[in-house]
Design goal:
The structure holds two protein chains of two kinds. Chain A is of the alpha/beta class. Chain A has two domains: 228 residues, 3-Layer(aba) Sandwich (Rossmann fold); 31 residues. Chain A is built from eight helices and 15 strands. Chain A has a nine-stranded mixed beta sheet, sandwiched between helices. Chain A has a two-stranded antiparallel ribbon with strand order 2-5. In chain A, strands 3-4 form a two-stranded antiparallel sheet. In chain A, helix 3 crosses helix 6. In chain A, 48% of the residues are buried. In chain B, strands 7-6-5-8-4-1-2-3-9 form a nine-stranded mixed beta sheet, with helices on both faces. A five-stranded parallel beta sheet of chain B has the order 12-11-13-14-15. Chain B folds into two domains: 175 residues, 3-Layer(aba) Sandwich (Rossmann fold); 123 residues, TPP-binding domain (Rossmann fold), CATH 3.40.50.1220. Chain B is an alpha/beta fold. The mean pLDDT of chain B is 94. Classes of the chains: A alpha/beta, B alpha/beta. At the A-B interface, helix 1, helix 4, helix 5, strand 9 and strand 10 of A face helix 4, strand 5, strand 6, strand 7 and strand 10 of B. Strand 11 of chain A pairs antiparallel with strand 10 of chain B, so a sheet runs across the interface. The complex binds flavin-adenine dinucleotide and adenosine monophosphate.
Amino acid sequence: MHIVICAKQVLDPEGVNGYALWGRLGVDESGRSFDTGGSTIPHIINAYDEQATEAALRIRDDAGEGNEGDVRITAIASGDPAAADVLKRCVAMGADSSVLVVDPEVAVADGFRTAKLLAAAIGELGDVDLVLCGRQGSDYDQGAVPAVLAELLGSPLVTLASDVRIDGNGDGAAVRVTRALPEGEELVSAPLPAVVSVSNELGQARYPSSRGMMAARRNPPAERAAADLLEGDDARVELMRLIVPDVQGHCEVIDGDSPEAKAQALMALLQGQGMFDE
Amino acid sequence: MSEPVLVILMPPGGDGLSNAAAEALGAGSRLAGLSDASLVCAVIGQDIAAATTEAAERGVDRVLAADEERFARPGGDLAVAAAAAAVEQSGARNVLLLGNADALELGPRLAARLDGASLMGVIDFSGSGDDLEVTAAVFGGAAHAAYRLSGPGPRVLGLAPAVAEAPEREAGRTADIEALTVPAVESRVTVEQAPSADEGPRLEDARVVVSGGRGLKDGDNYDRIRELAEALGGMPGASRAIVDDGWAPAPEQVGLTGKIVTPDLYIAAGISGASQHMAGCSNSRVIVAINTDPDAPIFNYAHYGIVDDCLEVLPELTRLGLELRAGR
Ligand SMILES: Cc1cc2nc3c(=O)[nH]c(=O)nc-3n(C[C@H](O)[C@H](O)[C@H](O)COP(=O)(O)OP(=O)(O)OC[C@H]3O[C@@H](n4cnc5c(N)ncnc54)[C@H](O)[C@@H]3O)c2cc1C
Ligand SMILES: Nc1ncnc2c1ncn2[C@@H]1O[C@H](COP(=O)(O)O)[C@@H](O)[C@H]1O
């Protein structure tokens, strides 16, 4: 069983959020990057991809003691050289090895280009049974890559997984997935090879052990050049400009001497507006 | 005239169009107007006569209808095949989808299959032809981004909720209706157990939603949220933080990756107001925030604020709500 995890490096969404809410998020001269007045927002692993890694590790744990070798886990990222950090994280958590597709023309918002690069890199690995992605990048909130990957690889796609298990082995092997849908849980299965995207309902991802972190230092990603995997830039989605909307505060604070008094004042106000009229 | 604009709808059988579907026709008509194009709507489902009629009455020029049992709840491979057939039969370059959970999968797959491009969470568009610019929220709504989409295939745009108004309905208006032919497809994904058909009220339709966050301090205190929701005849909601902590069930999550609600009254107790949470509730008519921190971001969005401990405010609101009900 060979599992590939696709991991994306993103600008920390909490950081972007924080600057936006305090009115300190701007856009730089290029129009395509944020300006935070000199301080920097860190780049981190997309949290859903940490959970995709966790899903892969749980499959290996399920194989049982002594059988861990039957489940091989490779992490892949496409991005600039700094994206090696997210792969180190995956290896520190327990992935066996990693591949970095170095894309100097990196068009972070173009999931179609990214998926083509990842599909080519996965093709080179050859014997992949399961590709695990995150449900969406917490930067552009698209979720395009797993879907496009499934199309390019000709594999079935299952999105929004909260639990991922492998059933059977050899030709009859299938992936059984619990999906977290708005209307509740759905249980589906698909033949391998398949692409599955993981949602936060999977639960907390494990932290790397110090042994894992040492191993990651000794086991850097293999590098592939984007130009060798894909001809031309073949751009599909081009980010023209970022816009920071104005969040206008217009809050009326309800006064009162006690929590009860404030509750009473609020209810009276809402009632006065006819909020609770039939 | 340029290539038509196509709106793809997969309505549940029997009824007319949902508000979201009617609004998508409004968005389609605006997009068509930008390039002097006609508006085509594909209606894919089972027992869709009412939906087809309504699409015509809401200004669609041509309807492609696929009314078959296998489309009762089309998902995965079948939805992609049906949508691809609709794009090809319509000759459309710009394709609009409703931005629900299914579309997140359908949009990029459809675009990839037809060698085009897709963008989800679309809130606006401008320009036309190759210069069409499409705007979507990024970082959970903390910012927006304008994009250009290219490629030989269609541009598939998934709409964010409430981006356009539904066109007026003109009773008796008709459109060309033709059958949409979809080849046989074998779905590779087997549904072994569908979500338990919950016939109860939907959070999305509630007129009052009371949501709780980490400020509740303890999972058991989520009961204070349920009690107030019940007293006000509404439904309980939750931030993702407390869903992840196991204090509230996942279907009650409000936000970017949860439910999108538009009640008359949204009460957020002990919720900080991260953009990903607000993406699910900022279109509520009145937002009330209860938070101990006067600088909490939620007060940027709230109409009314109480700066205090929600564990003390909630029970009093519940008491007053019950009193009000008893007095009726
Ligand atoms: C890609 C992505 C998607 C996401 N999707 C969603 C989503 O769909 N929905 C969602 O909600 N979040 C989502 N999030 C998470 C979001 O960014 C926030 O982390 C989350 O909403 C915070 O939850 P919270 O407000 O309950 O907790 P916190 O941020 O911890 O806030 C707790 C608040 O309670 C206040 N408080 C403390 N004690 C009291 C008290 N006694 N009385 C009153 N107030 C008190 C504090 O002042 C604070 O403001 C997403 C994040 C990402 C990256
Ligand atoms: N540059 C990338 N490198 C590796 N995986 C990626 C990359 N971009 C996206 N992915 C994967 O695709 C998922 C959805 O991302 P996106 O399509 O960008 O919203 C992520 O959670 C990752 O698993």
